Amino acid sequence: MLQKAILVDVISSEISKEEGLQRLDELESLVKTYGGIAVVKVIQKKSMPDYKTYIGSGKLKEILEENKKIKATLLIVNNLLKPMQNYNLNEICKKEDVEVWDRVDLILKIFDKHAKSVEAKMQIELAAIRHMGPRIYGMGLELTRQGGGIGTRGIGETNLQIMKRHLRRREQKIKEKLEHYDLVQANHRNQRRSKDLKTVSLVGYTNAGKSTLLNTITKKGVYVADKLFATLETTVGKLYLPSSGKIALLSDTIGFIQDLPPDLIDAFKSTLSEIIDADLLLHVIDISDSLYELKIKVVEDILKDLEVSNKPKIYIFNKVDLAPEIDPKKVANHFNDFSPVFVSAETKNGIDGLIQKVEKVITSLHETESLKQGVQGY
Fold first, then answer.
1. What is the CATH number of domain 3-111?
2. What is the mean pLDDT of the chain?
3. What is the CATH number of domain 196-377?
4. For the chain, what is the radius of gyration of the CA atoms?
5. What percent of the chain clears pLDDT 90, i.e. is strictly above it?
6. CA atoms within 13 A of residue 251's CA, in its CB half-sphere
7. What's the average model confidence in pLDDT over 124-146?
8. What are the sequence ranges of the domains in the chain?
9. Is this prediction's pTM over 0.85?
Protein backbone atom coordinates (compact mmCIF):
# COMPACT_ATOMS: atom_id res chain seq x y z
CA MET A 1 0.00 0.00 0.00
CA LEU A 2 1.38 3.41 -1.03
CA GLN A 3 2.24 5.75 1.83
CA LYS A 4 0.23 8.98 1.58
CA ALA A 5 2.16 12.23 1.95
CA ILE A 6 1.32 15.91 2.40
CA LEU A 7 3.91 18.14 0.70
CA VAL A 8 4.56 21.61 2.09
CA ASP A 9 6.81 24.40 0.87
CA VAL A 10 7.31 27.87 2.36
CA ILE A 11 8.52 30.36 -0.24
CA SER A 12 9.28 34.08 -0.28
CA SER A 13 7.54 36.59 -2.53
CA GLU A 14 10.73 36.72 -4.65
CA ILE A 15 10.06 33.19 -5.96
CA SER A 16 7.74 33.11 -8.97
CA LYS A 17 4.57 31.01 -9.04
CA GLU A 18 6.06 28.81 -11.79
CA GLU A 19 9.23 28.14 -9.80
CA GLY A 20 7.19 27.48 -6.64
CA LEU A 21 5.05 24.90 -8.43
CA GLN A 22 8.15 23.35 -10.02
CA ARG A 23 9.74 22.95 -6.60
CA LEU A 24 6.74 21.00 -5.32
CA ASP A 25 6.49 18.99 -8.56
CA GLU A 26 10.08 17.90 -8.03
CA LEU A 27 9.32 16.97 -4.43
CA GLU A 28 6.36 14.94 -5.69
CA SER A 29 8.69 13.14 -8.12
CA LEU A 30 10.98 12.34 -5.19
CA VAL A 31 8.01 10.92 -3.26
CA LYS A 32 7.06 8.73 -6.25
CA THR A 33 10.66 7.54 -6.54
CA TYR A 34 10.55 6.58 -2.86
CA GLY A 35 7.32 4.67 -3.42
CA GLY A 36 4.79 7.02 -1.90
CA ILE A 37 1.98 9.18 -3.22
CA ALA A 38 1.41 12.92 -2.74
CA VAL A 39 -2.21 13.54 -1.80
CA VAL A 40 -1.95 17.26 -0.94
CA LYS A 41 0.50 19.96 -2.05
CA VAL A 42 0.62 23.20 -0.05
CA ILE A 43 2.58 26.39 -0.78
CA GLN A 44 2.73 29.05 1.93
CA LYS A 45 4.04 32.50 1.01
CA LYS A 46 6.04 33.95 3.91
CA SER A 47 8.97 36.34 4.03
CA MET A 48 10.60 34.04 6.59
CA PRO A 49 9.71 30.48 7.68
CA ASP A 50 8.29 30.19 11.20
CA TYR A 51 11.13 30.08 13.75
CA LYS A 52 9.58 27.26 15.81
CA THR A 53 7.73 25.08 13.29
CA TYR A 54 8.86 26.31 9.82
CA ILE A 55 5.20 26.21 8.68
CA GLY A 56 3.04 28.97 10.16
CA SER A 57 0.98 27.74 13.12
CA GLY A 58 -2.33 28.66 11.45
CA LYS A 59 -1.43 26.88 8.22
CA LEU A 60 -0.20 23.81 10.13
CA LYS A 61 -3.49 23.60 12.07
CA GLU A 62 -5.40 23.91 8.79
CA ILE A 63 -3.34 21.11 7.18
CA LEU A 64 -3.82 18.72 10.10
CA GLU A 65 -7.56 19.45 10.23
CA GLU A 66 -7.91 18.65 6.53
CA ASN A 67 -5.85 15.50 7.01
CA LYS A 68 -8.55 14.00 9.23
CA LYS A 69 -10.37 13.19 5.96
CA ILE A 70 -7.28 12.33 3.85
CA LYS A 71 -5.51 10.14 6.44
CA ALA A 72 -1.95 10.88 5.20
CA THR A 73 0.80 9.45 7.42
CA LEU A 74 3.63 11.71 6.24
CA LEU A 75 4.17 15.46 6.14
CA ILE A 76 7.21 16.34 4.03
CA VAL A 77 8.71 19.84 4.17
CA ASN A 78 10.52 20.90 1.01
CA ASN A 79 13.56 22.26 2.80
CA LEU A 80 16.12 21.45 5.48
CA LEU A 81 14.49 21.79 8.89
CA LYS A 82 16.45 23.13 11.83
CA PRO A 83 16.70 20.66 14.74
CA MET A 84 14.14 22.46 16.91
CA GLN A 85 11.74 22.96 13.98
CA ASN A 86 11.93 19.24 13.25
CA TYR A 87 11.38 18.38 16.93
CA ASN A 88 8.45 20.79 17.39
CA LEU A 89 6.72 19.71 14.16
CA ASN A 90 7.02 16.03 15.05
CA GLU A 91 5.69 16.69 18.57
CA ILE A 92 2.59 18.39 17.13
CA CYS A 93 2.01 16.01 14.21
CA LYS A 94 2.52 12.72 16.05
CA LYS A 95 -0.69 13.46 17.99
CA GLU A 96 -2.45 13.05 14.62
CA ASP A 97 -0.38 9.94 13.69
CA VAL A 98 1.61 11.94 11.13
CA GLU A 99 5.40 11.67 10.82
CA VAL A 100 7.43 14.69 9.66
CA TRP A 101 10.33 14.48 7.21
CA ASP A 102 12.29 17.24 5.56
CA ARG A 103 13.65 17.17 2.01
CA VAL A 104 16.96 15.64 3.10
CA ASP A 105 15.21 12.83 5.03
CA LEU A 106 13.36 11.91 1.84
CA ILE A 107 16.48 12.00 -0.34
CA LEU A 108 18.41 9.84 2.14
CA LYS A 109 15.59 7.28 2.22
CA ILE A 110 15.56 7.16 -1.60
CA PHE A 111 19.34 6.71 -1.64
CA ASP A 112 19.04 3.94 0.92
CA LYS A 113 16.50 2.07 -1.26
CA HIS A 114 18.61 2.40 -4.41
CA ALA A 115 22.09 1.73 -3.01
CA LYS A 116 23.55 -1.61 -4.10
CA SER A 117 27.26 -1.49 -3.35
CA VAL A 118 28.76 -1.59 0.14
CA GLU A 119 30.49 1.72 -0.55
CA ALA A 120 27.24 3.49 -1.51
CA LYS A 121 25.50 2.13 1.59
CA MET A 122 28.29 3.45 3.80
CA GLN A 123 28.21 6.86 2.09
CA ILE A 124 24.48 7.09 2.76
CA GLU A 125 24.89 6.05 6.39
CA LEU A 126 27.59 8.70 6.84
CA ALA A 127 25.31 11.39 5.40
CA ALA A 128 22.44 10.17 7.59
CA ILE A 129 24.58 10.37 10.74
CA ARG A 130 25.60 13.94 9.88
CA HIS A 131 21.98 14.86 9.23
CA MET A 132 20.84 13.19 12.44
CA GLY A 133 23.54 14.61 14.71
CA PRO A 134 22.16 18.14 15.26
CA ARG A 135 18.68 16.73 15.90
CA ILE A 136 19.90 15.02 19.07
CA TYR A 137 19.51 18.43 20.71
CA GLY A 138 15.73 18.21 20.34
CA MET A 139 15.67 14.54 21.31
CA GLY A 140 17.92 15.36 24.26
CA LEU A 141 15.35 17.77 25.68
CA GLU A 142 12.80 14.96 25.72
CA LEU A 143 15.27 12.46 27.19
CA THR A 144 16.37 14.84 29.94
CA ARG A 145 12.74 15.47 30.84
CA GLN A 146 12.36 11.72 31.26
CA GLY A 147 15.40 11.77 33.53
CA GLY A 148 14.03 14.29 36.00
CA GLY A 149 14.36 17.62 34.22
CA ILE A 150 17.02 19.77 32.59
CA GLY A 151 20.10 20.24 34.77
CA THR A 152 19.89 16.86 36.50
CA ARG A 153 22.03 13.82 35.78
CA GLY A 154 19.12 11.52 35.18
CA ILE A 155 18.78 8.61 32.77
CA GLY A 156 17.84 10.93 29.91
CA GLU A 157 21.12 12.85 30.06
CA THR A 158 23.03 9.56 30.13
CA ASN A 159 21.14 8.30 27.07
CA LEU A 160 21.93 11.51 25.23
CA GLN A 161 25.66 11.17 25.88
CA ILE A 162 25.59 7.50 24.87
CA MET A 163 23.85 8.39 21.61
CA LYS A 164 26.36 11.13 20.81
CA ARG A 165 29.34 8.85 21.48
CA HIS A 166 27.85 6.05 19.41
CA LEU A 167 27.30 8.33 16.41
CA ARG A 168 30.84 9.78 16.70
CA ARG A 169 32.40 6.29 16.79
CA ARG A 170 30.27 5.05 13.91
CA GLU A 171 31.08 8.12 11.80
CA GLN A 172 34.82 7.61 12.38
CA LYS A 173 34.64 3.91 11.39
CA ILE A 174 32.74 4.68 8.18
CA LYS A 175 35.19 7.46 7.25
CA GLU A 176 38.12 5.08 7.71
CA LYS A 177 36.49 2.45 5.48
CA LEU A 178 35.63 5.03 2.81
CA GLU A 179 39.24 6.22 2.82
CA HIS A 180 40.19 2.67 1.79
CA TYR A 181 37.77 2.89 -1.18
CA ASP A 182 39.29 6.27 -2.05
CA LEU A 183 42.75 4.68 -2.26
CA VAL A 184 41.49 1.80 -4.42
CA GLN A 185 39.81 4.18 -6.86
CA ALA A 186 42.84 6.48 -6.88
CA ASN A 187 45.00 3.48 -7.89
CA HIS A 188 42.59 2.68 -10.72
CA ARG A 189 42.80 6.27 -11.97
CA ASN A 190 46.61 6.20 -11.79
CA GLN A 191 46.64 3.03 -13.87
CA ARG A 192 44.52 4.74 -16.51
CA ARG A 193 46.90 7.69 -16.61
CA SER A 194 49.88 5.36 -17.03
CA LYS A 195 48.11 3.91 -20.09
CA ASP A 196 47.46 7.45 -21.38
CA LEU A 197 43.70 6.91 -21.23
CA LYS A 198 41.71 10.13 -21.11
CA THR A 199 38.65 10.19 -18.87
CA VAL A 200 35.33 11.81 -19.65
CA SER A 201 32.64 12.24 -17.00
CA LEU A 202 28.91 12.73 -17.49
CA VAL A 203 27.43 15.30 -15.11
CA GLY A 204 23.97 16.78 -14.89
CA TYR A 205 20.72 17.21 -13.05
CA THR A 206 19.13 13.94 -11.97
CA ASN A 207 16.94 12.35 -14.66
CA ALA A 208 18.54 14.40 -17.48
CA GLY A 209 19.35 11.16 -19.34
CA LYS A 210 23.01 10.55 -18.40
CA SER A 211 22.66 6.77 -17.98
CA THR A 212 20.73 6.42 -21.25
CA LEU A 213 23.47 8.40 -22.99
CA LEU A 214 26.18 6.19 -21.46
CA ASN A 215 24.35 3.09 -22.72
CA THR A 216 23.89 4.58 -26.17
CA ILE A 217 27.56 5.53 -26.56
CA THR A 218 29.27 2.59 -24.82
CA LYS A 219 26.59 -0.17 -24.87
CA LYS A 220 27.38 -0.63 -21.18
CA GLY A 221 23.86 -1.73 -20.27
CA VAL A 222 23.44 0.17 -16.99
CA TYR A 223 20.08 0.47 -15.26
CA VAL A 224 17.87 3.26 -16.58
CA ALA A 225 14.58 4.47 -15.11
CA ASP A 226 12.38 7.55 -15.53
CA LYS A 227 12.82 8.60 -11.91
CA LEU A 228 15.16 10.71 -9.81
CA PHE A 229 18.41 9.19 -8.52
CA ALA A 230 18.11 5.93 -10.47
CA THR A 231 21.93 5.83 -10.49
CA LEU A 232 24.02 6.12 -7.31
CA GLU A 233 27.15 4.09 -8.06
CA THR A 234 29.76 5.15 -10.60
CA THR A 235 29.75 3.24 -13.90
CA VAL A 236 32.66 3.40 -16.35
CA GLY A 237 32.49 2.33 -20.00
CA LYS A 238 34.80 2.50 -23.01
CA LEU A 239 34.22 5.26 -25.56
CA TYR A 240 35.67 4.43 -28.99
CA LEU A 241 37.03 7.43 -30.90
CA PRO A 242 36.76 6.46 -34.61
CA SER A 243 39.04 9.05 -36.23
CA SER A 244 42.08 8.36 -34.05
CA GLY A 245 41.30 4.73 -33.22
CA LYS A 246 41.87 5.52 -29.56
CA ILE A 247 39.70 4.78 -26.54
CA ALA A 248 38.57 7.13 -23.77
CA LEU A 249 36.82 6.11 -20.56
CA LEU A 250 33.33 7.50 -19.99
CA SER A 251 31.91 7.56 -16.45
CA ASP A 252 28.40 8.17 -15.18
CA THR A 253 27.87 9.27 -11.57
CA ILE A 254 25.08 10.36 -9.26
CA GLY A 255 22.84 13.10 -10.62
CA PHE A 256 22.53 16.48 -8.94
CA ILE A 257 19.46 18.22 -7.57
CA GLN A 258 18.72 21.67 -6.13
CA ASP A 259 19.29 22.15 -2.41
CA LEU A 260 21.53 19.07 -2.24
CA PRO A 261 23.06 19.42 1.24
CA PRO A 262 26.87 19.82 1.50
CA ASP A 263 27.09 16.84 3.90
CA LEU A 264 25.55 14.62 1.23
CA ILE A 265 28.02 15.83 -1.40
CA ASP A 266 30.88 15.30 1.04
CA ALA A 267 29.69 11.78 1.91
CA PHE A 268 29.74 10.87 -1.81
CA LYS A 269 33.24 12.28 -2.27
CA SER A 270 34.71 8.97 -3.46
CA THR A 271 31.90 8.58 -6.02
CA LEU A 272 32.32 12.16 -7.23
CA SER A 273 36.09 11.74 -7.54
CA GLU A 274 35.49 10.53 -11.11
CA ILE A 275 34.23 14.04 -11.87
CA ILE A 276 37.05 15.72 -9.96
CA ASP A 277 39.74 13.78 -11.86
CA ALA A 278 38.10 13.80 -15.30
CA ASP A 279 39.86 15.40 -18.28
CA LEU A 280 36.54 16.46 -19.85
CA LEU A 281 33.03 17.01 -18.46
CA LEU A 282 29.90 16.36 -20.49
CA HIS A 283 27.08 18.37 -18.92
CA VAL A 284 23.85 16.59 -19.90
CA ILE A 285 20.79 18.85 -19.97
CA ASP A 286 17.14 17.91 -20.46
CA ILE A 287 16.16 20.46 -23.12
CA SER A 288 12.49 19.41 -22.85
CA ASP A 289 12.38 20.75 -19.27
CA SER A 290 10.95 24.29 -19.25
CA LEU A 291 13.26 25.18 -16.34
CA TYR A 292 16.41 23.72 -17.87
CA GLU A 293 18.35 26.98 -17.43
CA LEU A 294 17.68 26.97 -13.69
CA LYS A 295 18.91 23.36 -13.50
CA ILE A 296 22.05 24.24 -15.48
CA LYS A 297 22.82 26.79 -12.75
CA VAL A 298 22.23 24.20 -9.99
CA VAL A 299 24.73 21.82 -11.62
CA GLU A 300 27.26 24.56 -12.29
CA ASP A 301 27.06 25.73 -8.66
CA ILE A 302 27.82 22.18 -7.44
CA LEU A 303 30.71 21.86 -9.91
CA LYS A 304 32.03 25.14 -8.52
CA ASP A 305 31.79 23.73 -4.98
CA LEU A 306 33.77 20.69 -6.19
CA GLU A 307 36.34 23.11 -7.71
CA VAL A 308 36.01 21.64 -11.20
CA SER A 309 33.99 24.36 -12.96
CA ASN A 310 37.02 25.38 -15.07
CA LYS A 311 37.55 21.95 -16.63
CA PRO A 312 36.97 21.52 -20.39
CA LYS A 313 33.23 21.12 -20.78
CA ILE A 314 30.65 20.32 -23.45
CA TYR A 315 26.96 21.08 -22.98
CA ILE A 316 24.82 18.21 -24.28
CA PHE A 317 21.21 19.22 -24.78
CA ASN A 318 19.43 15.87 -24.57
CA LYS A 319 15.83 14.80 -25.35
CA VAL A 320 15.50 17.02 -28.45
CA ASP A 321 12.85 14.57 -29.67
CA LEU A 322 10.65 15.74 -26.79
CA ALA A 323 11.19 19.46 -27.47
CA PRO A 324 10.24 20.23 -31.10
CA GLU A 325 9.48 23.87 -30.20
CA ILE A 326 13.11 24.58 -29.18
CA ASP A 327 15.25 26.60 -31.62
CA PRO A 328 18.72 24.92 -31.46
CA LYS A 329 20.46 27.90 -33.10
CA LYS A 330 19.13 30.30 -30.48
CA VAL A 331 20.12 27.99 -27.61
CA ALA A 332 23.53 27.32 -29.17
CA ASN A 333 24.24 31.05 -29.48
CA HIS A 334 23.33 31.56 -25.82
CA PHE A 335 25.66 28.76 -24.64
CA ASN A 336 28.31 29.17 -27.31
CA ASP A 337 31.19 29.03 -24.78
CA PHE A 338 30.39 25.39 -23.98
CA SER A 339 30.50 23.80 -27.46
CA PRO A 340 26.78 22.90 -27.35
CA VAL A 341 25.53 19.79 -29.10
CA PHE A 342 21.92 18.58 -29.47
CA VAL A 343 21.09 14.89 -29.16
CA SER A 344 18.47 12.34 -28.27
CA ALA A 345 20.06 9.50 -26.34
CA GLU A 346 16.82 7.56 -26.81
CA THR A 347 16.62 7.80 -30.63
CA LYS A 348 20.43 8.17 -31.11
CA ASN A 349 19.91 11.39 -33.06
CA GLY A 350 23.07 13.58 -32.99
CA ILE A 351 25.25 10.96 -31.26
CA ASP A 352 27.85 10.81 -34.07
CA GLY A 353 28.28 14.59 -33.92
CA LEU A 354 28.72 14.39 -30.15
CA ILE A 355 31.45 11.74 -30.42
CA GLN A 356 33.26 13.82 -33.04
CA LYS A 357 33.18 16.85 -30.72
CA VAL A 358 34.45 14.78 -27.78
CA GLU A 359 37.25 13.36 -29.91
CA LYS A 360 38.25 16.84 -31.05
CA VAL A 361 38.61 18.03 -27.43
CA ILE A 362 40.53 14.91 -26.37
CA THR A 363 42.89 15.22 -29.36
CA SER A 364 43.52 18.83 -28.37
CA LEU A 365 44.30 17.74 -24.79
CA HIS A 366 46.78 15.12 -26.06
CA GLU A 367 48.47 17.70 -28.28
CA THR A 368 48.74 20.20 -25.40
CA GLU A 369 50.33 17.55 -23.17
CA SER A 370 52.80 16.54 -25.90
CA LEU A 371 53.76 20.18 -26.38
CA LYS A 372 54.36 20.62 -22.62
CA GLN A 373 56.48 17.46 -22.47
CA GLY A 374 58.49 18.68 -25.48
CA VAL A 375 59.18 22.03 -23.80
CA GLN A 376 60.21 20.31 -20.56
CA GLY A 377 62.47 17.92 -22.45
CA TYR A 378 64.09 20.80 -24.25
1. 3.40.50.11060
2. 85
3. 3.40.50.300
4. 24
5. 49
6. 24
7. 68
8. 3-111, 116-176, 196-377
9. no
